[in-house]
Amino acid sequence: MKKLLLTGFVPFQDHPVNPTEPIVKHLDGKRIGGLQIFGRVLPVDFSESADVCLGHLEEIEPDIVLSLGLAAGRTKITPERVAINCKDGGPDNRGVFVRDEPIVPDGPAAYFSTLPIRRMVDRLNEKGYPAQISNTAGTYLCNHIMYSVLHKIKSENRPVLGGFVHLPASHELAVRQPSLPSWSQADLERAVVLMIEVLAEQEIAS
């Protein structure tokens, strides 16, 4: 059975809830469309997050890496098209700010997702879950993880698909931050399952 590494993050900054964390924990160990899911929650830490994620990649040796992050303020599920070689922003959960630093010195300027993001978006919209492709993963930890994973896959010529998807806020978070648009936690998780089903279909066809 092929393996999917599914990652999310702990809460960060002024967001006391991160909906990716319970999704990853709940789907850990499940089988979806022939894929065995390995769910792992990452720290929000410029100095540790990528190393932790890449450690999971080494340990699990997945066929696919699907990383999730919170994009509070977005209204749709947004698979990311590209990650750039830049880390900027903060604070992370240690209070660290980073400015204009490369993720990988002398690394490529960018990597494109190798996930079937158009098919993922189409499937979500067909099932009534608003989604669109995003062309910016930002420069915070989400972009950092996406770039780091794709760099490792590419530089080591691994036969692994990888990419990142941003989720809107959950209702639980919006209750605490009323200005945020939000989805139910159940709908967010169902949307992630639908995307995994698309990935499983691609793996079977390949």
Q: What's the N-to-C terminus distance?
A: 14 Å
Strand order of the largest sheet: 2-3-1-4-10-5
Radius of gyration: 16 Å
Number of helices: 6
Mean pLDDT value? 96
Task: Describe the secondary structure blueprint for this structure.
Blueprint: E1 2-9, H1 20-27, E2 31-32, E3 35-42, H2 49-60, E4 64-70, E5 78-79, E6 82-84, E7 87-89, E8 98-101, E9 110-112, H3 117-126, H4 141-155, E10 161-167, E11 169-170, H5 171-176, E12 182-183, H6 185-205
Parallel strand pairs: 1-3, 1-4, 4-10, 11-12
Antiparallel strand pairs: 2-3, 5-10, 6-9, 7-8
Helix pairs in contact: 2-4, 3-6
Write up what this structure looks like.
The chain is 35% helix and 25% strand. The chain is built from 6 helices and 12 strands. Strands 2-3-1-4-10-5 form a 6-stranded mixed beta sheet. Helix 3 (117-126) crosses helix 6 (185-205). The protein is globular and about 40 Å long. The mean pLDDT is 96.
